[in-house]
TrEMBL record:
May play a role in DNA repair. It seems to be involved in an RecBC-independent recombinational process of DNA repair. It may act with RecF and RecO. This is Recombination protein RecR. A zinc finger (C4-type) spans 58-73. SMART domains: TOPRIM. One of its GO terms (molecular function) is DNA binding. The keyword Transferase does not apply. The gene is recR.
Amino acid sequence: MALLPKALSRLIESFEKLPGIGPKTAQRLAFYLLHVPEEELKAFADRLIALKSHTVLCSVCKNVAEEDPCSICSDPSRDQSMVCVVENPTDVLSVEKTGKYKGLYHVLHGAIDPLNNIGPDEIYIEDLLKRVRFRESRGFPESGIKEIILATNPNMEGEATAMYLTKQLKAQNAKLKITRLAHGLPVGADIEYADEVTLSRALEGRREY
C-alpha cells in the first residue's frame, strides 16, 4: 500500500534529482509546496516553464541570457581584447559583482573530468578556440583578442582544464597572452591554518606592497 499520493511521491523524486538535494530535503520541499496557495503554486510553475522558454545560450560567449548575443557581448563599452574563461554562468555573476573586470567572457559549462567521462568535446572549448581564430582572421589585430584569463576553479578538474586550454591556445597563437587567476590566502584567514598548496600559491603570486 502506497503511503503517499502518487503526485506527491513523483514530486519528491523530482526534487531528489536536483544537485545538493537529499531525500529529507526533497520531502520537506514537496510538503511545503503542498500547503502553498494554489495561485502562488501556479505562478511558481509558470516561472519554471519560463526558465526554458525565455532563456537562450549566447552564441558568442555561451552564457545564459534573454537575447542573443547577450548584453555583455553586445556592449560596445566592454574591452573586446580580454576574455575571461569560467566554468559556469554563476562564475560570471561572481566576477561581475567585483566591478573590476570590464572585458568579455566565455563560459565552458563544466571542466575536463575524465573520471566522469567529461572530455574537451563535452564542454565549450572548441567555441573558444573558434572565437580567437575568428578575431585573427579578420586582419584587424587592434580589435582582436589579446588576453585570455583562465578563471577555472582551483581544483584538479579546473587545473586540468586550464592546462589543456593553455596548450591549445598557444599552439594556435604563440603571441596570445594567457593569464591565470591568482591563488592564495583569503582575506581574514590565518596563515597557521592554510594548507601547503595555498601557501605555495600565495608566495608565488606575491606582489610589491
